[in-house]
Amino acid sequence: MFKPKLLVTTLIALPLALPAMADGWPPEELNLVTHSSSGGGGDVMMRNLGQTMESEFGISTVVDNRVGGSGAVALSWLANQAPTDGTAIMSVTPTQLITPLRADGIPGYQDVTPIARLFIDPSTLYVHENSEFETIEELLEHARENPRSLSIGIGSAGSLDQLVLQNFEAATGIEVRTVPHEGGGDAVVALLGQHVDAVVGEPGQALTHLDNGTLRMLTVFQEERLDAYPDVPTLSEIGYEVVSNKFRGVFGPPGMDPDLANEIADKLSTLYEAEPWNTYWVEGSMNPAFLGPDDFVSFLDGANEEMGDFIESLE
Amino acid sequence: MIEVSAILEALLNVLTPYTLFFLVLGVLIGIVAGILPGINGAIGISLILPFTFGMEPATALIMMLGLWGGQNFGGGVTAALVHAPGAASGAATLFDGYPMAQKGQAGKALGIICVSSSIGWFLSTIMLAVIAIPLAAFALRFSAPEYFAVGIFGLSMVASMATKNIFKGAIATLFGLAIVTIGTDPFSGLPRFTFGRFELMDGINFLVVMIGVFAIAEVLVQVQKPNVQAKVKKFSRELPSWREIRALLPTMFRSAGIGMLVGTAPGAGGSIAAFIAYNEAKRFSRKPEEFGYGSQEGLAAPEAANNATEGGAMVPLLALGIPGSGAAAVILASMILYGLRPGPQIFTEQPVLVYSLFFGLALGAVALLILGLLLTPYLALVMRIPKPYLITGVAGIAFMAAMAITGLLFDVRLVLLFGVVGYIMRKLDFPPAPMILALVLGFMIETSLRRALIMSDGDWSIFMTRPIAATILAVAILSFLYPMLREIVGRLRQRSAKQ
Questions:
Q1: CB-CB: which of A66, A189, A195 is closest to B407?
Q2: What is the mean pLDDT of chain B?
Q3: Whether pLDDT at A15 is above 50
Q4: Do A103 and B191 touch (CB under 8 A)?
């Protein structure tokens, strides 16, 4: 049965339907929002993701730095003004949990759509090559015998590094002096100059020095040893449970269609091996730790509770 | 251990039309970015980053370095012409650049800015090439007590900046320090004096204050003056003479050295270097009374210093893989994207790349000199705009700049607020410069003081027992007392002469 009329209507309708059918997400122009300024952690992540998506999907991407208020500006924009059609996604780190806990009236993860967790940044403890401590046990022994004698640098106050350090002190029963800096890089400089005894932070910020031996990693705060440093024991191996959950992922605006969120998460989960995304996370010593929308929300529930207790402990 | 073959290869790499084209383009984009308020080096480099993929890493990085240097010059241009810096590094250029342009010597002012920027840039490149590795080791000896000492040394300049009335200068300084406390407490991570406004959680950007206190206040002052429209303002596009430049060379050399050293210390930046160089120029000057009223030395010093910080910042960037500023952070991120890993080993593993960057920097300084001097007569034309249009334009640029820095309407209101504050300060004869100085240095002083005391577990002797910190602090006290002592001695002499 040949129905010319149907064919004609189909042909007319086809181009209209195509944009919506064209594999859905990603759209031709994707807005990658971040609270970081140029060169900051979230900015570097989104620029790498953008480059990767451009070459993988042939789309164009724009990194949109909505800087200010320790992430509050970007969160408010996402919660109130962002388009919900998947043309804008935002980078998230624990900052997006901590800022709403610190001040009232800032939208939190409950007010937007968590899409995917992508990585966990390992938290580690390292010392200078001239340090007297060869192992984490030696450091612990010294710290127990001489309370408050060790100074340990962290990237910034009220950050995940500080939470890990606090948990580390509580679990092992030691007391140290916490020295916050203006970011992880500054803490590493202080350690290179031997102005602090150790640093708790990501290996990514000290890669060169860890690889050429100027700095020595003593322990890892996560379940498994790091692939890049197979000789460094985790803290749980010597009997203390301290695990860091420094995650990186993406959020979408509130009211996003759950199917769309799932689709975005699926697409992002296929990118780990693509370049320059792969170089980005391997060089940064991150662990791929993908969670889809639903699992990400339950993960955030747990992390948010722990963070809330931590913020209270600071006040 | 100089590898001649690597140097030659690098030179041949850089001297290709391809690389030179992108270097000049980078410098040009940088000049424009610097002139436009709200676009700093980090943003400019991020904007060109996507276009550099597919280039040779060396070419891409040289283009970025060119942009960075060009933007340090552009920031000074805006400072001199419209009384608001186009970039943070141009903050100290405003003090003598603006009066000079107002006197009808816009061409001369921009010419001096251009020549000192280029010379500062070129000299710092040579220093970088010669002593990068020992300098990196020196930078590592700087920790919280030393940064605190540098901050206090910087604040001691208040004494020489506010020679008319030291008490008003002190009040302005304290006001600036008070503004710095707004934001997030750097040691507890909790909001501090934010009045429940999340816009204040990152503190008040000092450019926002500067734009208000200088540009908007100037507009308010100008509006009240009778419009001398009929009389065409004296105006000259004439460039500085060779004799004038030669007389400024010692100032430029000294300032480049200061900029290089300050730039090497991660955490201090172009604006701090420019202020320190400005003050040292005043101290060494035979005519310190001209400073603030269009002194050529006062213009050359901060510009030579802020461009020299680029060479300085390359030291920790290349030798330690540590970015000392926003622009350096973007360059570091791009290097990692290109698969390059800065650190001490890069000098031995990638000598050609490193030497290419050195040559690129040196040629960038030359490109800036040529481009800057070609553009200067046209830029200076801004001063020909009739006053009513000019001040309307300045007000527009000021608000646009405030919007561009963070994208928040809140900051536009802050600019207006600080405009009124600046206007009142001028009417009551409070000097605005010490306030800006306190804003630039306040954060570093607070954090390094508190960090030093954590490091020493509350023991204040840490500032006396560390030789570098103790030396800088001693110099700071002397430099604070010097202008006052000189004045007292001068008065005593006058008195004894009369008797």
A1: A66
A2: 86
A3: no
A4: yes
